[in-house]
Description:
alpha/beta; Rossmann fold; five-stranded parallel β-sheet; 7 helices
Amino acid sequence: xxxxxxxxxxxxxxxxxxxxxxxxxxxxxxxxxxxxxxxxxxxxxxxxxxxxxxxxxxxxxxxxxxxxxxxxxxxxxxxxxxxxxxxxxxxxxxxxxxxxxxxxxxxxxxxxxxxxxxxxxxxxxxxxxxxxxxxxxxxxxxxxxxxxxxxxxxxxxxxxxxxxxxxxxxxxxxxxxxxxxxxxxxxxxxxxxxxxxxxxxxxxxxxxxxxxxxxxxxxxxxxxx
Length: 225
């Protein structure tokens, strides 16, 4: 059985219940707010909310951030199946998760991401699903970096036939000619700096801008009676 496709509650190993508290806070947001965009995923999504990129570009789009650090694909599956996309009608759902699935193969991670697509589509049949590529990781070339690159290739081939679902490339420009990643882009060679977020998420912003204005353009072009 592929662990990445089995919805899994995070075990409270530290004893403070923070993961479930965050999930419950997200549930409250779905009942109190009306987002056009929902971001959901691991720490790369969670930390986005503290950046200039979020404040200047994504927050004005009426976006919610449902990122939790350390999450695996199966944890995000559990969160979605337990209400995080209920009570709202976002136009776009952005999902970035998978780099923390250390014990999974590239094929298993790609299958897990496609299971996320299936569950999101079931919850939000009219929403557009955006899948940013997994980012490279580690200062120097390493197996996890290679695995993430393989996941991106597999997911790209799988989503090509899925309507209203698009993979957006955000992993370009991080690996330097000598194969290293700069701490100016990823301070710990995994998590993005402010400038790293600008580099990675600008393509996401451009796609969201296009998707959110398409409907408005169609309305503007509708002949008045």
